[in-house]
Amino acid sequence: MTRKKVNLAFIANDSARKATFKKRKKGLMKKITELSTLCGVDACAVVYSPYQPHPEVWPPDPRAAQHVVTQFKRMPEMEQSKKMVNQESFIRQRITKAAEQLKKLQRENREKEMTELMYKCLMGRGGMQGLGVGELNDMGWLIDERLKEISKRIDEALKKGGTGGAVAEKKAEVVDLGGGVEKQQLWSFAEWMGSTSAGEEIMLQFNEGNNQNHNHNHNHNHNHNNAAVMWSNAFFH
Amino acid sequence: MTRKKVNLAFIANDSARKATFKKRKKGLMKKITELSTLCGVDACAVVYSPYQPHPEVWPPDPRAAQHVVTQFKRMPEMEQSKKMVNQESFIRQRITKAAEQLKKLQRENREKEMTELMYKCLMGRGGMQGLGVGELNDMGWLIDERLKEISKRIDEALKKGGTGGAVAEKKAEVVDLGGGVEKQQLWSFAEWMGSTSAGEEIMLQFNEGNNQNHNHNHNHNHNHNNAAVMWSNAFFH
DNA sequence: GTCTCTATGATTAGTAG
DNA sequence: CCTACTAATCATAGAGA
């Protein structure tokens, strides 16, 4: 009965694997909770287990979302960015407008998601007794996933746009705001873009019949002077 | 130096908290990796730390985009495509059209996904010969995730296309900006392509025998870069 | 602040019921 | 299948460089 050093490879034995899975998942969740409480950070984990029909999410109510959203809304650079370079002002106006819509849309879409999940639950399984927790988990997962997506996009936008991107190039030629400020503003821009498109995407997924109106813009490509305006129109309707 | 039992509460001391955070985050990531390999499951964690501007995700790329990136790297046409990337208007045009199509596809796929989920639910948990219910369910989630990834990339491509337009205009007005910008544009284009092909693949998964042809629009543009047209057509088929 | 060290508490593999 | 137990391994708190 001497315990061996654990061999870090797939456990062939089915029952042993499941046992290990259960134990280690529990440990993992505990670790996450501990990290959260000890260090005051938001953290969550998603485990796609073959033993459960849906991914398991921890914490059950991922407040990680809240943190990000809060940070998001706390963006003070947003206001400054309104007064930025002239050439970008029209884009920023649209962004601001779209951001207002975003809030509303996200709220609506979350409701729709929940409704849909409940619907699935009721239709498919003949009732939701006993499944409420799992479905709630799914809801948390959905929301969190979306936020992850947004974060990822922010990351990419910063990486690509921040170093060689169009916005930075243009900005540099018109007015020099100093390195730190410029970066911050670019951040703001990228984040708003990210959130806006996410909102749009979600809306399109659920409002099935409402987006047939893009065609008018698409065949006017010869007009280069207003390319950006066209793009914005197409994008933000 | 007798170590106490850890007090499971917020660590007041700033530096101690940060140290603990670093250590425990590392441990957490290790645990996740171990759980994954030992039990053959997919798992990821997200930590929103105040010490980094963006949330940290583990594994670095949790199953999304993997496929797309792989496909992108496998593209031998990449070198050739540098030429056509110069055609900013062409790219913008394509992005707009592709975005429209893919959003449509998204809606369609969403519906099909729901149908499949309904079907699965009606079948119940006991049945599903051949494939485990959990597996199918996981696949549904996976597909959902991929769809989101696609949306993300489309929106991103739109964003870059629009700002890229700004760069192109600037370039025309002032002077050639050199290789850096070109490379950036290539990336935008390639990423857009990657997302497009991913979308197509998912459509094929659902439309098994029923592959709709969305290509008829593509030959309507009068861009004279035939190589580019062929290349993108190859992706849209 | 970071990195290393190591004793100890925490986790968990293996086993038994 | 599960829970309980134990001991071996692992993670990490605390201290010092």
Automatic annotation (TrEMBL), chains A, B:
Primary localization: nucleus
Keyword annotations: Coiled coil, DNA-binding, Nucleus, Transcription, Transcription regulation
Record's keyword annotation contains Protease: no
Pfam families given in the database record: SRF-TF (PF00319)
Membrane-traversing stretches: none
MADS-box domain segment(s): 1-49
GO CC annotations, alphabetized: nucleus
Coiled-coil residue spans: 88-115
Presence of the UniProt keyword Nucleus in the record: yes
Molecular function GO terms recorded: DNA binding
Subcellular location per the Swiss-Prot or TrEMBL entry: Nucleus
Protein name from the UniProt record: MADS-box domain-containing protein
Organism: Penstemon smallii
